[in-house]
């Protein structure tokens, strides 16, 4: 089984350092780019995907206060996903790179999905964030294949949705092992 981490990490660093120009903060004045760039978190000079994920985590309590139940939250996420397809595509075209590292709305929507199904408590949330970032960086199959196949807004959103699925499955196993270990 091939190791995904070193190649992916080197590719990401190369992409950020050489292939992708840093976007101008002026893009934030356009509402579509504001969304795609995660309200500015995607403009982070280092690890913009992680910055977008952390921004999502910070915004999560506010969203929970605004959305009264899980069904409303999931409906909101569906709208965010569809909006993200178009926003990521538009911003990718403007930046000249379909999946520019500064586009982090995909990380945010996927992270919110993971957090909806994460047990309460900061420790579980921190584990969920770490798992999501791990799978988003490593891109195990079929994430890498989806990322390579779809070079548009749908592809940008899809690969993070798949990383969220991996994170949720792993989190479910950890929760079950924790419950088993505590005798609950």
Provide structural commentary:
With 184 residues, this protein is mainly alpha-helical. The protein has one domain. Helix 5 packs parallel to helix 8 and helix 7 packs antiparallel against helix 8. The longest helix is centred in the last third of the chain and has 30 residues. The N and C termini lie far apart (36 Å). The N terminus is likely disordered.
Average of pLDDT: 88
Structural class estimated from helices and strands:
mainly alpha
What is the rounded Rg?
16 Å
Order of helices and strands: HHHHHHHH
Please provide the count of β strands.
0
pLDDT under 50 segments (min length 5)? 1-6
Counting structural domains, the number is: 1
Q: Compute the number of helices.
A: 8
The termini sit apart by: 36 Å
Shape estimate: globular
The helix content is: over 70%
Which strand-content bin applies to the residues? Answer: under 5%
Largest sheet: none
């Amino acid at each position: 089984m091939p190791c995904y981490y070193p190649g992916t990490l080197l590719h990401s660093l190369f992409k950020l350092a050489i292939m992708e120009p840093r976007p101008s903060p002026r893009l934030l004045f356009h509402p579509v780019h504001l969304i795609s760039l995660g309200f500015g978190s995607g403009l982070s000079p280092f690890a913009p995907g992680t910055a977008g994920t952390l921004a999502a985590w910070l915004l999560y309590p506010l969203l929970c206060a605004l959305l009264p139940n899980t069904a409303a939250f999931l409906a909101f996420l569906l709208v965010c996903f569809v909006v993200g397809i178009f926003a990521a595509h538009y911003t990718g075209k403007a930046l000249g790179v379909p999946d520019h590292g500064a586009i982090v709305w995909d990380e945010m929507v996927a992270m919110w999905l993971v957090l909806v199904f994460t047990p309460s408590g900061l420790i579980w949330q921190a584990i969920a964030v770490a798992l999501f970032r791990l799978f988003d960086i490593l891109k195990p199959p079929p994430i890498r294949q989806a990322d390579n196949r779809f070079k548009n807004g749908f592809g940008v959103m899809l690969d993070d949705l798949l990383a969220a699925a991996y994170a949720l499955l792993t989190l479910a196993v950890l929760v079950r092992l924790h419950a088993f270990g505590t005798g609950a």
